[in-house]
Amino acid sequence: MSEQEESTEAEAEAEAEAEAEAEDSNSGNGTSNRRSGTKYPYYDLKQAEDFAKAVQSSGGNEVLETDLLEHLKVSSTTKSWIYGLSTAREFGLVDKKGQKAEALILLTDLGKRLLLPGDNAELMTSRSAAFLTPPLYRSLFERYKGAPVPQPEFLANLLVRKHRLLQSVSSQAAEAFIASAKFAGLVSDHDVLGGVKLKEGAEELSQEAPDEVSSSATMEVPKDFITHSFPLRKNLTVEIPLPVSLTTKDVERLKNWMDSLVFDEEEKEQEP
Asked: How far apart are CA 160 and CA 158, in angstroms?
């Protein structure tokens, strides 16, 4: 996608977010008009899949943007179009190339797998992969994996505090994440995220996977523990379950224990 096209689309999205922020300002909360600091799917995975189906029904694997707009009976400045296209792209189901009258909306390989699966297993694997494609969703999945699905209001708070989403869109984004996880089959009957086995091949299919690959091994964490993700060094993140009632003395003991495990790279390099 060209820089000019990216700029046009970013401006349209900024206008839509500014409208939402203006509503907040009018309500007296004093929020300024600014864009979110993290990319996120505004709608859920099912709506992204419906957008991809619209592409498929309009032109097969690709369709002129003007024809798709006509098919959906919207304009290019309609908020539902701006966020619908952005969401489908975030999930890795569609892409856009060209500009103005020449602009094409096309299905990605993942989008084709999702809409034309060979069997139900491939369908669910593709949905899992689409769910893991947005970096934000992958990060949240790793944080909450094995734990109860977070309550929307608390997840919204985390999205604002840690991921720099705007307050005005945080609740919508939180609801979309939870709905997407359920649609992808990644919530167990006991309402635990990742309580079902991640479909084989989903990691490989997800198009925005980070450098590090999560281990398939799982560890049962007691309910009075919290799993903390810590970026140890480049391409290596560790997860450490710690008790909620962690004390200062506990931390000192942990530090002493970790000091005993240190691998001194400088000394090792000096060895003949």
From this structure: 5
- The DSSP symbol for 8 reads H
Tens digit of each residue's pLDDT (9 = 90 or more) over 139-186 = 999 999 999 999 999 999 999 999 999 999 999 999 999 999 999 999
Six-digit token string for 10:
């970013």
Q: Which two tokens stand for residue 183?
A: 């649609």
Query: Distance between CA atoms of 259 and 263, rounded to whole angstroms?
Result: 9
Kindly tell me the burial class for residue 226, based on how many C-beta atoms sit within 10 Å of its own C-beta (0-12, 13-18, 19 or more): middle
Helix axes 3-26, 79-90, angle to 10 degrees: 120
Question: Can you read off the two tokens belonging to residue 127?
Answer: 């949905």
Amino acid sitting at position 182: K
Instruction: Tell me which of 46 and 243 has the higher pLDDT.
Output: 46
Taking the model in full, what pTM does it have? 0.63
The token duo for 144 is: 């909450």
- Which region holds residue 74: left if phi is over 0, alpha if psi is between -120 and 50, else beta? beta
| pLDDT digits 0-9 by tens, 226-269 | 667 667 766 576 677 777 677 888 888 888 777 766 655 444 44
Return the exposure string of 71-103: e unless at least 16 CB atoms fall within 10 Å of the residue's CB, then b.
ebeeeeeebebbbbbbbbbbbbbbbbeeeeeeb
Domains in the chain, ordered, with CATH?
Answer: 3-118 (1.10.10.10), 219-272 (no CATH)
What is the distance, to the nearest Å, from the Cα of residue 130 to the centroid of all Cα atoms in its chain?
9
